[in-house]
Specification:
Bound molecules: pyridoxal-5'-phosphate
CATH topology of the largest domain: Aspartate Aminotransferase, domain 2
Largest sheet: 7 strands, mixed
Distance between the termini: 55 Å
Radius of gyration: 24 Å
CATH superfamily of the largest domain: Type I PLP-dependent aspartate aminotransferase-like (Major domain)
Helix content: 40-55%
Length: 477
């Protein structure tokens, strides 16, 4: 494709994207396809020759769009927000269009230095101190694997340079809670600690926050058994209920025992753009590493996960290999991001944040986050005031965990498996209708519904409509 052919097709594509974004509110929120339907609509063998761009665009409408769960839909309340601000989409297009290669500073100085600058802007915007140095990973999952490797190498005195974990005399242990995101257990497994060495520390039964006393006791038990406490993963905004582990109390313990502290704020990091929310990660300055996803609530399109460390020398000592073919005269004066993570080749992700911050502006992003916090509090008040409805966890951010318990007000509440069936039935009737979407989660072994507010287009009116749907479908279930 020549640049002129590209110009013509790209204009059409941009028009298509703008039209598509405009019509999202009219689409079904949940993809209305059976498993295998998208695959069956596509040819089994690869295309021969070339196709017309118009045919490709038509197939986007015919095959692809029906197979999308519309997470940009204002009635999407599932999982966590996955906003894709159009300003950041422009940055993504610019990144792809320039076709840069980030394998070293030399291969694209602008890629490295813009990343340094926007990571530092984000540090300032979230109120973090100057000792933090950031990079952009694809996801918080990758950031957590990186953090677990950093912890492993610190606790094992750089076992990677010798026989690795195979020479370890005693198992190294990681501490978290049952509320932690599934990517934490995955990172612990993949970094070589093994699932047996992941301790799920007791939580407060209501706030679901890690109990620091229980953490200290678990560490003491491991020390007495001859194990090596290596890392603590602290959740700031855990997945089911946005529970907040007490970072400050945990950091004091981590420092006392010399244990690596990773803060997983994948969801809640966006809230730290608001000064009034920063008490939620009080003590974060004492952590060793920290990750959060602008690609969630803040809305810089995937894949934009910030990863910060305080000890860059340790990070580089663990991640650097310094092969001869990548050495250059600039070494020592510049950042080589390949030594800050696992991949060698990197995309120009910083453009997405740069465009987003400059075109939408911090004020507007903050105003939207405050709107969503307000909508969540309003919604929680409606649920609390309604007969036979419960809000099951503190509303720390924009997620409200709810359950309908028929018969509660008359003293004969539905319970057990019957309650679970009821919860899943009313939820499924809404999700199947396509009018709105929420996702369920287990809490203490019982199903509940998470109402996760925060899509860019979701206003109070959408939340009000959702509450009507919910009451109607629960009454009918
Ligand atoms: C979403 C989320 C993750 C995983 O994020 P990815 O970027 O999708 O890997 C991890 N932890 C928490 C608390 C999350 O909300």
């Amino acid at each position: 494709m020549s640049p002129d052919e590209f110009r013509k097709a790209a204009h059409e594509l941009i028009d298509w994207i703008a039209d598509y974004r405009q019509k999202i509110p009219e689409l079904s929120v949940r993809a209305q396809v059976e498993p295998g339907a998208v695959r069956r609509a596509l040819p089994a063998s690869p295309p021969t020759g070339t196709d017309d761009f118009g045919l490709l665009l038509a197939d986007l409408d015919r095959v692809i769009v029906p197979g999308i769960t519309q997470v940009q839909h204002p009635m999407h309340f599932g999982w966590f927000p996955s906003n894709a601000a159009l300003a950041s989409v422009l940055g993504d297009i610019a990144s792809s269009g320039m076709g840069t290669l980030g394998i070293s500073w030399e291969s694209c100085p602008a890629l490295t230095e813009l990343e340094e600058v926007v990571c530092d802007w984000m540090r300032q915007l979230t109120g973090l101190g100057e000792q933090w140095h950031g990079t952009i990973h694809d996801t918080a999952s990758t950031a957590c694997v990186t953090a677990m490797i950093l912890a492993r190498e610190r606790a094992s005195q750089f076992s990677k340079n010798g026989a690795g974990l195979q020479a370890a005399a005693a198992p190294m242990v990681v501490y978290s809670t049952a509320q932690a995101h599934s990517s934490i257990a995955k990172a612990v497994q993949l970094a070589g600690f093994g699932n047996d060495n992941l301790r799920l520390v007791d939580e407060d039964p209501y706030t679901r926050a890690m109990l620091p006393g229980a953490l200290a006791a678990a560490i003491e038990r491991d020390l007495a058994a001859g194990n090596v406490p290596a890392a603590i993963v602290c959740s700031v905004g855990a997945t089911a209920t946005t529970a907040m582990d007490p970072v400050e109390a945990i950091a004091i313990i981590a420092n006392r025992y010399g244990i690596w502290l990773h803060v997983d704020a994948a969801m809640a990091g966006s809230a730290m753009l608001l000064p009034e929310c920063r008490h939620l990660w009080q003590g974060v300055e004492q952590a060793d590493s920290l990750a959060w996803n602008p690609h969630k609530w803040m809305g810089t399109i995937l894949d934009t996960a910030l990863f910060y460390v305080r000890d860059v020398a340790h990070l580089e000592a663990v991640m650097s290999t310094n092969p001869s073919y990548l050495r250059s005269g600039a070494d020592g004066q510049v950042t080589q991001y390949r030594d800050w993570g696992i991949p060698l080749g990197r995309r120009f992700r910083a453009l997405k944040l740069w465009f987003h911050l400059r075109l939408d502006g911090v004020d507007a992003i903050q105003a939207r986050l405050r709107r969503d916090l307000d909508n969540a509090r309003w919604f929680a008040r409606q649920v609390e005031a309604a007969e036979d409805w419960e809000v099951l966890a503190p509303v720390m951010l924009q997620t409200v965990c709810i359950r309908h318990v028929p018969g509660q007000s008359s003293g004969t509440p539905l319970s057990g498996a019957a309650l679970d069936a009821h919860t899943l039935a009313w939820l499924e009737s809404i999700n199947t209708s396509g009018a709105a979407f929420m996702s369920p989660s287990l809490l203490d072994g019982r199903w509940m519904v998470r109402v996760s507010i925060g899509v860019e287009g979701t206003t109070r009116e959408h939340v009000r409509r959702l509450w009507e749907f919910i009451q109607r479908s629960a009454a009918a279930a």
